[in-house]
Design brief:
- The protein is α+β, with helices and mostly antiparallel strands.
- The chain has helices at 7-10, 19-33, 42-58, 61-70, 135-138, 282-287, 346-357, 361-364, 372-380, and strands at 93-97, 127-133, 142-153, 162-167, 176-183, 186-193, 202-207, 216-227, 235-239, 255-261, 268-270, 273-281, 289-294, 299-304, 313-316, 332-339.
- The chain has a domain at 268-380: HSP40/DNAj peptide-binding domain.
- The chain contains nine helices and 16 strands.
- The strands form six sheets. It has a four-stranded mixed sheet. Strands 11-12-16-15 form a four-stranded mixed sheet. Strands 3-8 form a two-stranded antiparallel sheet.
- Strand 11 and strand 12 (273-281) form a beta hairpin.
- Helix 2 runs antiparallel to helix 3.
- The longest helix is centred in the N-terminal third of the chain and has 17 residues, at 42-58.
- The structure holds zinc ion (2 copies).
């Protein structure tokens, strides 16, 4: 696939362009490059398509955000064109968030066999698989081998559907027929799949046993998927050309690997940050202590200062999740839960009573000026 131009560049805008500027730039350029204004100029048509695509993405807030984050890899419409053919195993991968909704539906691959009406060969369907990762696995780049069931071109008949075929006389083997008619705009040429051979270009004499004439077979293939560090639950990795084979040489669909990141019992994800709730006893909170907290790799020592209050947060910079496709990592935030004893022995109860007797307002003044009792008073005032 030829490398795609940056959408902002296409519209001649900066990345900070406002909605109005985007609209204006598109209107101006679309008028200039509209195919009607440039009859017979294939270049103009391509430029017009490029413009329209850029505009559709940048004029949609959600799509623009995704584009700003992930670049070109956000598919606007995976159902139509755009995918290169070639070796599906050489297909490149990219990531996008699946906020485009459930475009995939339940596309069982059975449906990719049938339906050869009088239409142009269509691109193969998209395949989807799901993959489960632990949070720790999602924190570093990993490679996985996946088994994917896809429809491939039949290797016995090379997709012809027959082991013995002859060229179709109607279309001369082209598989398509062109009709030319005159209209106000000039010559209109339309191409349709040949109805005699259903667009194959050949007539089957001896049907292929392997694919029963469909030219395609379902196969389980092994795919190696590179999963970038920092991937989030619900995101998908797209492998261009890794989906089902297209009809009669049309490009294959894409493979979408939907990633599920399992929740961790110790570390909760909050974007690029991780949150760990640490429990300390009220005595530890009062006297201070050293503690170990779990990290993505091993553990880290933290110091609980004397007089630490419930809900206090310690931040370990750069100990969070790697930022997806960006440098750096988020933080690990340790939230302190102070545990109050619920079952006390007689002796413990006695000690606490004694403690209370010798405690005054000063005991709870945490140095912030306002004491515990001051705050309590302000609540009831
Ligand atoms: Zn034909
Ligand atoms: Zn076959």
């Amino acid at each position: 696939m030829a490398s795609k131009r940056d959408y902002y560049e296409v519209l001649g805008l900066s990345r900070e362009a406002s909605e109005t500027e985007i609209k204006k730039a598109y209107r101006r350029l679309a008028r200039e490059h509209h195919p009607d204004a440039n009859p017979g100029d294939q270049g103009a048509e391509d430029r017009f398509k490029e413009l329209t695509e850029a505009y559709e993405v940048l004029s949609n807030t959600q799509a623009r955000q995704a584009y700003d984050t992930y670049g070109h890899q956000v598919p606007r419409d995976a159902g139509q064109g755009g995918a290169p053919g070639g070796d599906p195993f050489g297909g490149f991968q990219d990531i996008f968030e699946t906020f485009f909704g459930d475009r995939f539906g339940e596309s069982g691959f059975g449906s990719f066999f049938g339906g050869t009406g009088a239409r142009a060969p269509s691109r193969g369907g998209d395949a989807e698989v799901e993959i489960d990762l632990t949070l720790r696995e999602a924190a570093s780049e990993t490679e996985r081998e996946l088994k994917v069931q896809i429809v491939k071109e039949c290797s016995i008949c090379s997709g012809a559907g027959g082991t013995e075929t002859r060229q179709c006389g109607t279309c001369g083997g082209a598989g398509a027929v062109r009709t030319v008619r005159q209209s106000l705009l000039g010559q209109m040429v339309s191409t349709q799949a040949c109805s005699t051979c259903s667009g194959r270009g050949s007539i089957i004499i001896v049907e292929c046993d392997n694919c029963r004439g469909s030219g395609r077979v379902a196969e389980v293939v092994t795919r190696r998927i590179q999963i970038p560090a920092g991937i989030e639950d619900g995101m998908s990795i797209r492998v261009t050309g890794g989906g089902h084979a297209g009809e009669r040489g049309a490009p294959a669909g894409d493979l979408y690997v939907r990633v599920r990141v399992k929740e961790d019992t110790e570390l909760m994800r909050d974007g690029d940050d991780l949150i760990h709730r640490m429990q300390v006893s009220f005595v530890e909170a009062a006297l201070g202590t050293e503690a170990e907290v779990p990290a993505l790799d091993g553990s880290r020592a933290v110091r609980i200062e004397p007089g630490t209050q419930p809900g206090a947060t310690l931040t370990l910079r750069g100990e969070g999740m790697p930022r997806l496709r960006r440098r750096g990592r988020g933080d690990l935030k340790v939230v302190v839960d102070v545990m109050v004893p619920t079952r006390l022995s007689g002796e413990q109860r006695e000690l606490l009573r004694r403690f209370e007797e010798i405690s005054g307002e000063e005991t709870y003044n945490n140095g912030g000026g306002e004491s515990f009792f001051d705050r309590l008073r302000s609540v009831f005032r």
